[in-house]
Design a protein that fits this description.
This protein is 20% helix and 4% strand. With 110 residues, the chain is mainly α. The radius of gyration is 22 Å and the shape is elongated. It has helices at 5-9, 20-23, 33-40, 100-104; strands at residues 31-32, 83-84.
Length: 110
């Protein structure tokens, strides 16, 4: 019996140079919806004039003691709920019915 389509077929049946394990969240691919949301929005308008060049010397002296704690925690890994399939219309080379929903159905993906 077939029990895990992603493990069995996820690296096969490439379409547009991509396979299910790259494109589909259910197979460990896809992209973070947070990342997608952040990268689709422009940060702001470009400045009308170029910014100033860097200064020849550092503007602040280094701290006398090393900082023992990191200043910012790394971003957590995206959860399955935070994932979006990379291409909503992708399907494998077997045909349009072999899409990310197919790979995710009936607990076929780990």
């Amino acid at each position: 019996a077939q029990s895990n389509y992603c493990s069995i077929y996820g690296n096969q049946f490439s379409n547009d140079g991509l396979v299910a394990n790259q494109v589909c969240c259910a197979c460990g691919g896809g992209i973070s919806s947070t990342t997608q949301q952040q990268t689709q929005q422009p940060i702001g308008q470009p400045s009308p004039q170029p910014t100033r060049p860097p200064t020849p010397q550092p503007t602040k002296p280094p701290s006398p003691q090393p900082i023992l704690q990191p200043t910012q925690l790394p971003n957590p890994l995206p959860s399955q709920n935070d994932c979006v399939d990379s291409s909503l219309d992708w399907h494998d080379s077997g045909g349009s019915s072999y899409n990310c929903q197919y790979y995710a159905q009936s607990n076929y993906c780990s």
